[in-house]
Amino acid sequence: MSTHVKEEEDPEANQTDSKPTCVRKRKFLERGLKRIEQSGVAPEVRRYNTRRIAATNTRKHKVFEVARRIAATNVEKRWVVKEPEFVEPKNPYFTAFISRSNRYNVNIPRSVVKKYNIKIHPDMKLRDQSGKLWPVSVVFRGDGRIAITTGWINFRKEMNLGLQDKCVFEFVLRGRISKEVRVQIFRKKTRS
Q: Whole-structure pTM over 0.70, yes or no?
């Protein structure tokens, strides 16, 4: 049979400060005191230095936090960049999400081409939202698939398209022939 004897603790040893402090600050002080006690410095010097350092760090932290908040609100006020709104295309269009499968080419849905009876020119141009033209090649595969190939990689890299970004491809028609495709880009929304 064993008997546990509870040791009495010195009430002054547990008090780190006579002023009420937040729990986080108190824990920080206690950790600092333990580290200093292990180092072998005199107890009075230890407590004074730990409190002084903790108070300085807390003040610095608050100043930096306030400065960060002010800077963030100023940046938000000055540099609010509105996400482009989706403009419903007047011409036939299709959408594609950037994935690993279309890193090197983009397939044009046959259903859109057949429905609107579009004749696609083998040497097309992609027009980005700023109006810049990008030359691309269109390949007509034996199984009926149509793909934008050569030039797509340059467009994707220059536009910094990432996974799950959405592209809306709108055919610009001259009669039934399309030599140009307008591209609207919508970035993947990240969770804050």
A: no
Q: Which residue has the tokens 């807390």?
A: 58
Strand intervals (E) in the chain: 93-97, 106-108, 119-127, 133-140, 146-148, 166-174, 177-186
Over residues 75-99, the pLDDT tens digits come to 444 444 445 566 778 889 999 999 9
Task: Decide yes or no: CATH 2.40.330.10 for domain 93-186.
Answer: yes
Distance CA 26, CA 144 (A): 72
What is the Cβ-side half-sphere exposure of residue 51, based on CA atoms within 13 angstroms? 12
Phi-psi region of 117 (alpha: psi -120 to 50; beta: other; left: phi over 0): left
Letter string b/e over residues 5-33, b meaning 16 or more CB atoms within 10 A of that residue's CB: eeeeeeeeeeebeeeebeeebeebbeebb
What distance lies between CA 73 and its chain's CA centroid? 18
- pLDDT tens column, 99-149: 988 888 999 999 999 999 999 999 999 999 899 999 999 999 999 899 999
* Distance from chain centroid for Cα 143: 39
Per domain, the residue ranges of the chain are 13-78, 93-186
